[in-house]
Amino acid sequence: MILPIVKYGDETLREKAVPVSFITDEIRKLAADMLETMYAARGVGLAAEQVGRCERICVIDVPKDCEKEAYRESNEAAARMPLVLVNPEILAAEGEQRDDEGCLSFPKIGSPVTRANTVTVTFLDLDGMRQTLTVSGLLARAVQHETDHLDGILFVDKLSQVQMLSIAGKLRRLKTATRRGK
Ligand code: NI
After folding, report:
1. Is 146 a known active-site residue?
2. 2 is a domain residue
3. Cα(98) to centroid of ligand 1, in Å?
4. DSSP label at 150?
5. In this structure, are residues 149 and 60 in contact, taking their beta carbons and an 8 Å threshold?
6. Backbone phi and psi for residue 109, each to the nearest 5 degrees, phi listed first
7. pLDDT digit string (tens) for 51-83?
8. Which bin fits 104, alpha (ψ -120 to 50), beta or left (φ > 0)?
9. Domain enclosing residue 75, as ranges
10. Residue 5, domain member (yes or no)
C-alpha cells in the first residue's frame, strides 16, 4: 500500500522515533508499505516519520551502479537491496564526502551536504537478526540521512547559512503548503 509522504512543515518530521521491541507482522507490513511508497516516489530511502509513523525503521535501495562501491567493505549477503533497518544505530563514521542531497519530504529541493564517507551501522533485520554493516559512498550517505530522520534531524539542518538563504523561499512555500494542507 502506498502511504502519503509527510512533507517539511509537519512537526512529525521533528519527532524522535521509538525503538521497535518485537518484529511483528505489523512491522513487516509497515516495511513493505514504506518500500512501495519509496519506489512509487522514486526515492532511495525513506524513514517511518515520513509516512507519519514513530517506529525506528527506515528502508533504503540505492541504484545498481552504486552498489559495487557501496558494498566494497560490507557483508554482501546482509547488504542486499533493498535494506530494511530496524532500530539502526551508527557505531562508527570515517572520512568525508560531499554531494547533492534531496529528500522525499522536500520535493524539488536539494543542496550539497557533507557526510562521513564510510559508516558502520548496526540494526535488526525483519527476521529479528542483528546485522552490522560497514558501507561507503551513496549507501553510507543514505544510512546517515535516514538515521538522522529517526532522530528528528533533516538534511536542511546540515546546510550552511548561505545554502539556507538560497533555498529559503522554496522552504517557506513548502512549509506554508504543508500547513495549509493539514
Ligand atoms: Ni529524507
Report:
1. yes
2. no
3. 16
4. H
5. no
6. -125, 130
7. 999 999 999 999 765 555 555 545 555 568 899
8. alpha
9. 11-179
10. no
- Look at residue 173 and tell me if it is in a domain: yes
Report how far ligand 1's centroid is from the alpha carbon of 45 (Å).
Answer: 7
Whole-number pLDDT of residue 65 = 59
Rg of the chain over Cα atoms, rounded to whole angstroms, equals 16
- Of 55, 67, 101, 146, which residue is the catalytic one? 146
Three-state SS for 98-125 is: EEEECCCCCCCCCEEEEECCEEEEEEEC
By residue count, the chain amounts to 182
95 CA distance to ligand 1 centroid (A)? 22
CA angle (121 as vertex; 6, 128 as ends), nearest 5: 80
Question: Is residue 63 in a domain?
Answer: yes
For residue 77, how far is its CA from the centre of ligand 1 (angstroms)? 25
| pLDDT in the model for residue 63 | 77
CATH code of the domain containing 158 = 3.90.45.10
**Which residues are registered as beta bridge partners of 89?**
122
Number of independent structural domains in the chain = 1
Per-residue pLDDT tens over the stretch 129-168: 999 999 888 999 999 999 999 999 999 999 999 999 999 9
Centroid of chain to Cα 48: 9
Query: What are the cell numbers at 54?
Result: 514513530
